[in-house]
């Protein structure tokens, strides 16, 4: 079976064909759960994979793991990287390396429930105001080909699209 960028291209195309033949197969649900471990430590779980979340010491955490907003940046970077590898493979573009550096700006007053002085021009809403991803791809492909790949990956990144638009959030409280 042909392999490009560590991916079996025939299998990738079979997934595409399966969804094309039966669009309902493309409707998926992904799940996660969390458990509080004391302080700011949280264990997150999806399928059989667990991650620990914590806050840095400057926010009174124990700095044992990335915090949730860092995990958002990590998720976006991982999603882009997967998108580049997959889309390059099906286009027969050999990739030697992908590195992505991400950063986002958050004003803490919103998270802390505070309203910063007007002169500081800080957002009173918690969350990222902007996210920047600097992508470096090492490949023998020409710049135009990589630019087309880049444009396609940005427009089809599930995490990127989720971050760029409003998403309906519902949270129900159960008490014991």
Explain what the structure shows:
This protein is α+β, with helices and mostly antiparallel strands. It folds into 2 domains: 35 residues; 98 residues, GMP Synthetase, Chain A, domain 3. 35% of the residues lie in helices and 24% in strands. The chain contains 5 helices and 7 strands, in the order E-E-H-E-E-E-H-E-H-E-H-H. A 3-stranded antiparallel β-sheet has the order 3-4-5, with no helix packed on it. A two-stranded antiparallel ribbon has the order 1-2. A two-stranded antiparallel ribbon has the order 6-7. The protein is globular.
Topology (elements, then pairings):
Layout: E1 3-4, E2 7-8, H1 9-21, E3 33-36, E4 42-46, E5 49-53, H2 68-90, E6 95-106, H3 108-111, E7 128-139, H4 143-156, H5 158-164
Antiparallel strand pairs: 1-2, 3-4, 4-5, 6-7
